[in-house]
Amino acid sequence: GAVVSQHPSWVICKSGTSVKIECRSLDFQATTMFWYRQFPKQSLMLMATSNEGSKATYEQGVEKDKFLINHASLTLSTLTVTSAHPEDSSFYICSARGGGLGREGEQFFGPGTRLTVL
Amino acid sequence: AQSVTQLGSHVSVSEGALVLLRCNYSSSVPPYLFWYVQYPNQGLQLLLKYTTGATLVKGINGFEAEFKKSETSFHLTKPSAHMSDAAEYFCAVFETGNQFYFGTGTSLTVIP
Prior knowledge:
The structure holds two protein chains of two kinds.
Chain A: E1 4-7, E2 10-13, E3 19-25, E4 32-38, E5 44-51, E6 57-58, E7 67-73, E8 76-81, E9 90-97, E10 108-109, E11 113-117
Parallel strand pairs in A: 2-11
Antiparallel strand pairs in A: 1-3, 3-8, 4-5, 4-9, 5-6, 7-8, 9-10, 9-11
Chain B: E1 4-5, E2 10-14, E3 19-21, E4 24-25, E5 32-38, E6 44-50, E7 56-58, E8 64-68, E9 73-78, E10 87-94, E11 100-102, E12 106-111
Parallel strand pairs in B: 2-12
Antiparallel strand pairs in B: 1-4, 3-9, 5-6, 5-10, 7-8, 8-9, 10-11, 10-12
């Protein structure tokens, strides 16, 4: 099956710093990647959709200057939380689709990144 | 817009008992349907999916789900719960050309 990795799996940072999270498709080319945010005991909230080589499309209410997404290659997308604050603490999950996979809409999910902002 | 409803945010069953997690969707066009499981501090793992064909879909870990168009449902079942089944379960719907829609999730507790 298709494998998606995320790095780091857990990060703690001080308020005001920026944090970069990487999402990689390990065995397929991800033409589309998605970034989700999940609060405790809640469902996943789609933040943005990114297609390789183009700007990400952000969902309503998501600050694009706050959450910078780069999808520079077919196997890597990054999410940078700029000037992080405690309210940005959350579980961030990426998913990917492409490479002939997921023709029926299936997305392949990364293991998630726990961000804690002090 | 599509909506996905999971009845019961928390379900508790005894070990060995039937597991039934409910999912209803709102699409008028049969979508693609998925069930995912999430263990604490982990990503989502696909349990099973329905795209076309047989309406009873078998997945991993003994789970199965049946697509019922007339009821717009895709309930997840397992005949006998195991302690390792305790997790969060998400139903999801995808319409071609549209985005993925997740239900709010159901937390399954298995009582020994």
